[in-house]
Amino acid sequence: MTLPTTPATNAAGRLLSVLAAFDRAAPALTLTEISRRAGLSLPTAHRLLSELTAWGALERDADGVYHVGLRLFELGTLAPRGPVLREAALPFLEDLYEATRENVQLAVREAGDAVYVERLAGRSSVGVRTRLGAHWPLHATGVGLALLAHAPAAFQEAYLAAGLAAFTPWTVTDPDRLRRMLAEVRTTGLAVSDRQVTEDALSVAAPVRGGDGAVVAAVSVVVRAPGSAAALAPAVRLAARGISRALATGRAAGVGAGAAGVGAGATGASAGVTGAAAGASAGATGPGAAGRAAPFA
Fold first, then answer.
1. What is the pLDDT of residue 226?
2. b/e map of 138-171 (b: 16 or more CB within 10 Å)?
3. Which of 250, 14, 22 is nearest to 133 (CA)?
4. pLDDT tens across 239-251, in order?
5. Which of 191, 93, 183 has the alpha carbon at shortest distance from 140?
6. Model confidence pTM above 0.85
7. Would you say residue 259 lies in a domain?
8. What is the pLDDT of residues 264-277, one digit of tens each?
C-alpha cells in the first residue's frame, strides 16, 4: 500500500490515512509507527486511533500494538466484486485445480494493479509470489494482461506512458511490444505471462465477463516454466466462460449479494472444465512442453 506523501487536510482523510498505514508488510503497528506512516502528529493519531478502536475498525492489544479489527473485515465481505464473484467462480477454479494440481488464481483490476481475490495453491507446483489481496502490476502477470487488454483504451495508454517495471529479464517493458501483446489477447481471448514475474513460472489467463459483457475479472493457471500455453488454453478458456455464465445467470435470476444458488448452478456446468484441464495438465508439463512454450517470452 502506498503511504501518503502529504498530510491529510480533512477529518475523513486523516481517518483513512490511519487505516492506510496498515498493509501486509506491517499488519501490526504502534502509535508512533502509525503517526509516522500516516503523516500525523502523535496527539492527532492517538485521538483517531481511540475513535477507530471504539468503533471496531481497529483493535489494540495489551502491549499497545494496533491491528485491523473485525468490523473492517465484515465491511470487506460486502464488496460486490468479492463474495458474488468468488462464489460463482469457485466450482470452476476447483475443477481446474483438481485436474491440474497447479496454482489457480482469480483477480480483478483496481487502478493499475491486478488484485487477487481467490487462489488455490498446488502443493508441488511452482511457487508463486501472489496471495489473497495482493496487488501486482497489470503488465507482468497473466491475469493482469487479460484485464489490461480489456480496459478502456485511454487507460491503457496512460498505463503504458507511466513506465513498465521489470521483475525479470523476461518482463516486457517496451510499450509497442506490449500493445501488440494486448491486441493478441483481445483476438485470442488468452493472455500468457512467460517468466515475467519469476523466471520459473508460466501463467495462462482468460478474461471473465459479467452479465453486461464487460470484463470483470480474469482466471489463470500458473505452471512451472517452460510450459505449454497451448495445452492449458482450452481448460482456462472453458473455466472463464463457465464463470461468466454463472455470473450472468445469477444476475438474471435476481441473485443478490449472497449469490445463493450460483455455486450450485455452476457445478453442473463446470464439469466440462475437468476433462479439458486433465489433458492440459499432462500437456503442459510433459515431454515436449518446452517446445510449445508461450508466445510472449
1. 77
2. bbbbbbbbbbbbbbeeeebeebbeeebeebeebb
3. 22
4. 999 999 999 887 4
5. 191
6. no
7. no
8. 333 444 445 555 54
Domain that holds residue 16: 11-76
Angle at 246 between CA 255 and CA 92, to 5 degrees: 130
Based on the domain organization, do 65 and 209 belong to the same domain?
A: no
Q: Quick check: 166 and 173 in contact, CB under 8 A?
A: yes
d(CA 158, CA 65): 40
How long is the chain? 297
Residues 234 and 145 in one domain: yes
Whether residue 160 contacts residue 178, with contact meaning beta carbons closer than 8 Å, is answered with yes
Helix (H) or strand (E) holding 84: helix 83-100
**Digit-coded pLDDT (tens) for 170-184:** 999 999 999 999 999
- Give the integer Cα–Cα distance in Å for 100 and 232: 9
Neighbours of 127 (CB within 10 A): 12
Average pLDDT value for residue range 42-59: 94
Beta bridge partners of 106: 118, 219
C-alpha cell at 282: 499432462
Is 97 inside a domain boundary? yes
> Could you give the percent of the chain with pLDDT greater than 90?
49
Q: Are residues 217 and 246 in the same domain?
A: yes
Is the Cα torsion angle 130, 134, 137, 139 positive or negative in sign? Answer: positive
Domain count across the chain = 2
Rounded Cα distance between 283 and 267, Å, is: 25
- Give CA–CA dist 111/273, Å, rounded: 31
pLDDT band at residue 191 under the 50/70/90 scheme: very high
